[in-house]
Amino acid sequence: xxxxxxxxxxxxxxxxxxxxxxxxxxxxxxxxxxxxxxxxxxxxxxxxxxxxxxxxxxxxxxxxxxxxxxxxxxxxxxxxxxxxxxxxxxxxxxxxxxxxxxxxxxxxxxxxxxxxxxxxxxxxxxxxxxxxxxxxxxxxxxxxxxxxxxxxxxxxxxxxxxxxxxxxxxxxxxxxxxxxxxxxxxxxxxxxxxxxxxxxxxxxxxxxxxxxxxxxxxxxxxxxxxxxxxxxxxxxxxxxxxxxxxxxxxxxxxxxxxxxxxxxxxxxxxxxxxxxxxxxxxxxxxxxxxxxxxxxxxxxxxxxxxxxxxxxxxxxxxxxxxxxxxxxxxxxxxxxxxxxxxxxxxxxxxxxxxxxxxxxxxxxxxxxxxxxxxxxxxxxxxxxxxxxxxxxxxxxxxxxxxxxxxxxxxxxxxxxxxxxxxxxxxxxxxxxxxxxxxxxxxxxxxxxxxxxxxxxxxxxxxxxxxxxxxxxxxxxxxxxxxxxxxxxxxxxxxxx
Length: 496
Known about the structure:
CATH class of the largest domain: Mainly Beta
Low-confidence stretches: 1-74, 103-176
Radius of gyration: 24 Å
CATH superfamily of the largest domain: YVTN repeat-like/Quinoprotein amine dehydrogenase
Strand content: 35-45%
Structural class: mainly beta
Shape: globular
Distance between the termini: 37 Å
Number of domains: 2
Oligomer: single chain
Mean pLDDT: 74
Number of strands: 35
């Protein structure tokens, strides 16, 4: 109830109850299936008509991640709408006939008016425009729910063994959570007290008091030396924390959820992207917004620094903008994707930008030209994320060729030779969508994590499987430690 003219936001909201689901026009069974699958969607807003078509003209089959993860949901939803519409039409006809038999005047007119669609649109459950919007937020890693559909106890772990070259002091474990906290775990093997944790509670000011925001922590990132942690939240605030868990700054200029957040290498600026279609560069020392970039026409999903003052951003508007601090317009705009752009990554040298999209393509861009250098088409479903190998020019492994890894909802991982623009290995052991890939520090191995609960370790030169591990839940994030002898993985059951 109360959602008839507003989007039902559930992508990152953590406290969805059964009554909320039943109170909307989204078929509960389909929504529960989506939630239990841990559906990851990169900020789509779509309206579905009764006949199963999308309000903006796209067929429902183009709903990228619903179709990619659960094509049966599409068919079920279409059938449900057809049955509902047929039932309403039958009820309407019966009511009109009964009214006509009872009286041939005003009553018939009233019944007819009650059941006549406005502007040619049918009504469903009292909704005038006959369409209902589904908004799914960008979240990385993903989340799932238990069978009760209420996930307050479910948490999202994010293991950081190595952030950047300078962060070697601690082997820390953090997770992103639906309880409006982040946590820092000290896993120093030399610690006498064992593993200890710091709880970073995300609060907002209400009535002169700090109360939990009750919004998910959607993103986090260490600065280069591991002394400060930045977090982004669905409450629209970014926050900076000290390594001992104290809140240093609250950054509050976004109007809506923050989807991505990253420090620059120097550590003086933080970059954030949000549902409000903007990206912001923050001064990490003062907590002030240095510049807000309002160039996207839809929610911004990911950002990545090229250097300390220049960055790229991508969006559901299918565009990629390269922006620079102090410039009032993009220094470069890349267009060519035909669907939402999920992730972008600069190569280690900062010369090439890789992007992946729901259009199932991976594209390589150069600042020297407007069109893409390579348009890599091999995946059969949406590409969720990409990672460059820590090899080649500008890395600690300059004698090894650079590679790019892509993870897709088609359950495969592909390794690409970017110089030639060809796929050199297709890694096909996973049985479900792959959400995360990570190269070992020397680039010799690749870890991949999938919703099939498996973490696989691959030899990047031969493409052979080296090790396999099966967890207790769908794997949403994998990461190597700095030494390259451990892999962390976060699972949908709340374990790491």
